[in-house]
Amino acid sequence: MKKISLIFVLSILLAACIAPNSVPNTTPKQTKSRTQVVNDLMSTAHQEHAQKFGGIYSDVGKTKHIQSIMNRLRKTSGFNGKTINAIILNSGDVNAYSLKSEAKNAYVYITRDMLNFVKNDDELAFVLAHEMAHISINNHHKKTPKQNIAEELKADKLAKRYIIRRPIYDFIRRLAARQKYLTNADAHYYPSNAQRLSQLYTPHSKTRKS
After folding, report:
1. Which residues touch 103 (CB under 8 Å, ≥6 apart)?
2. pTM of the prediction?
3. 3 state SS of 86
4. Can you say whether the dihedral through the CA atoms of 119, 122, 125, 129 is positive or negative?
5. Are strands 83-89 and 96-100 parallel, antiparallel or unpaired?
6. Hey, which residues does 53 pair with through a beta bridge?
7. Which of 36, 78, 100, 206 has the greatest number of CB atoms lying within 10 Å of its CB?
């Protein structure tokens, strides 16, 4: 499952805004703070991302349901990060994404077909928890395939803290089978089915004898 980072782009754009040769705004009321600029850029990026991946799927009931699950995950996990907005994308891909930056808001996107793919709220909660974990990891740098695989596995591991029930073998296996559409260029950026299952279900270490 993918995650998108804006920090590099934001840094470039913000640097351009404060470049020495830029023309200063002589009207104080029109001057935006760095926070305002970042939030505006995030809002624009959200709209562009949603449009790129099929547009926003308008279903108030489902969106509220997803948001309520994320809110419960935040409460039970002690997640105290950004304000996270749930968005359904009108996409035929079985996938989920997270969008983050320095802005106060972050977004978790889940595609229409992923909603159809999950069998129950436990599976949906795992998908959402995985994306929330990406946001909490807060790694904005471009990663090598090895680094990306490590982050995906870390997100799975963190997701276990956000959910009360264990994730289900069947979901990971079905997802792996469904995602055979990944190109070779994409596939080596993500952990294998075996890697994910091995980490998620590794038994806790035995208590050491005193």
Report:
1. 6, 38, 39, 41, 42, 82
2. 0.68
3. strand
4. negative
5. unpaired
6. none
7. 100
Q: Which residue has the tokens 């995030």?
A: 42
Q: Residue 104, exposed/middle/buried by CB under 10 A (0-12, 13-18, 19+)? A: exposed
pLDDT tens for residues 97-111? 988 888 888 899 999
Q: Where are the domains of the chain?
A: 2-10+33-200
CA distance 152 to 133: 9
Share of the chain above pLDDT 70, in %: 66
Contact 50, 109 (CB under 8 A): yes
- Token look-up 């997270």 returns 98
| Cβ contacts of 139 within 8 Å, gap of 6 or more | 5, 151
CATH class of domain segment(s) 2-10+33-200: alpha beta
pLDDT at 10: 32
Where are the alpha helices (H) located in the chain, listed in sequence order? 7-17, 34-52, 60-77, 112-117, 121-137, 145-162, 169-178, 184-187, 193-200
Distance CA 88, CA 65 (A): 11
Can you name the residues that pair with 40 across neighbouring β-strands?
A: none
